[in-house]
């Protein structure tokens, strides 16, 4: 992979993270998107704008898919596509001023090349890519030990847990315990570190793009809840986990029906 691209993106992300941290000292504009619990701030939008401008000036031929401001659909994954979630965990950003990430995934003809997940308040950048390994800042991480569903923690989407959607609560009860962070990026990080065995949620492409590049590098499995590839087109159910945990959850959902 292009080392220069990695260095460039890391500099952009440092700058974006600094901008977000500084924004916490000022009043921000918070707007409801689809409803009371679906928020966007001017900082989400400005961070996406900042990253898009960097990509456009350095890689003018490339395509960009981003959560905010009408960039949330794309014709096809042909060529090089940058997938941006400027603030993942906007509710946490607004209510907690921590536990949110910047996420960026780079794909070529639909194949993940590089992934970046930046835990902004901890100053921790998880990054890596195809045949590159996975890093936390400068340190190369080792692949975590894999376990069964019953042997580890399971990250869940709050709504799915509450409604027992696709047996989320039943599956959670089979694990060592359920964790709900409200931030897909943090759930991906928890798996990469070996803290969680799996994650079941309902996500859009920018919520999973960066994460799946890193998960794949470590041998985790992921797909939608039918067991078929993710569409990169709108929201869908998302399952990732150690091979054993992934297979166990998928099997349970497919055998027991929706
Ligand atoms: C959300 C978070 C949350 C997940 C939602 C996402 P956003 O992203 O990742 O954990 O449950 O599905 O939409 O909107 O804060 O970027
Ligand atoms: Ca959002
Ligand atoms: Ca998100
Ligand atoms: Ca977001």
From TrEMBL:
Pfam families (alphabetical): Inositol_P
InterPro entries reported for this sequence: Inositol_monophosphatase-like
One term of GO molecular function: inositol monophosphate 1-phosphatase activity
One GO term of the biological process aspect: inositol metabolic process
Binding site for Mg(2+): 67, 85, 87-88, 207
Cofactor(s) needed for function: Mg(2+)
UniProt KW keywords: Hydrolase, Magnesium, Metal-binding
Signal peptide interval: none
Gene3D superfamilies in the record: 3.40.190.80, Fructose-1,6-Bisphosphatase, subunit A, domain 1
Protein name (Swiss-Prot/TrEMBL): Inositol monophosphatase
Species annotation: Enterococcus rivorum
